[in-house]
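Entry:
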Amino acid sequence: MRVLFIHQFLWAHYKAKHFSDLFAISQKTKEFEFHVLQMSRTEATRLNIGAIDESYHKYNYDLLYDDFLEKTPFWGKAIKIFKKISSFKADVVVLPGYFDPSTWLIYLYCKIAGIKTIMFLDSGETDNKKIWFKEIIKKRIIALSDGFLSIGPATDQYLLKLGAKKEQILMSRNALDNHEIRNQYEQSLPSRAERKAKLKLKKFNFIFVGRLIDFKNLFIMLEAFDKATKKHNEGADWGFLMVGDGPLEDELKAFINDKKIANVHFLPPCEWLEVPWNISLADVMVLASYSEPWGFVVNEALICGKPVIVSNHCGCVTSLVKEGKNGNGLTFSPYNTNELSDKMLKMMDNTNKFEQMGKKGIEIIKDFSPEKVAAETIAAFKKVYSS
């Protein structure tokens, strides 16, 4: 069985781990041959989020265009993919959803040629505004696929709505390199107090890590923080760390200045191995996105043993965030500033429970390991190939 996995861009370190694991298993078991076709080097919006560590990509791959994904040409990309499918003699082709019109032709070609296709999908129904004719196209592409790799329940539900059969959803989870992230976090702990003092951080801190872009819902997040700290008796002991950059950075700083929001600290974007070092400076992770296919930063926070506050529009929320007495976090509507502020207040009132919540998060994230993702992905290859 020869499996060709087509992916959008080389930058994705979490995919590097996944692909490297699949390749290592293929070399060990000799049950299948595995190759990856990377369409581009990175996306324009990820330009400053760390360089690509190519040594982490320990698998056979081709890079179609050493450029931004947004600059890859329609026909040139499609022709190169056709040629690779043919030269590799693929039995199973894994394609990245329906985001790229050039891949629509690939689905059709594979169907005619009798090549099995698996769609890897990471979007849900609440991601982006839905346009009726695009939904029709999606349904047609769904009908051409033999199986699906999903990142979680929100994506599963959307696939089913678009016409996929339940038995065709062959995986429903996502994972990072849990071991390495935890290793980096533990390395960061001895210097935590010194680094906090150097940055003049507060005793307790919320943290956001990601691109400073619209759908991250950053203005509401900061406004909610401001309301919470002004209501709480010990609000002056709390700060907010904003890790990343993006087109909204200047506007956010102006907003903070205009609203006189105190104790917000901007830290520069960092490579993925540095994220746990920033997380160690904080106490609670906040992800307030209007739209988020998954939200890997929540994985990172749980691996580091941190409580989380996560928008119910994030794909990971039903899988990774458990509320209640023995939970690891809280959820809220991203359109409700007061609700988010109340959830922040609840965290501020329960600092003595952070350790317990962190342990619960570590327990939850064990079920989202690269080993489980690799095993389920290989099972999907075999099932589709033999069907």
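The longest helix spans residues 13-29.
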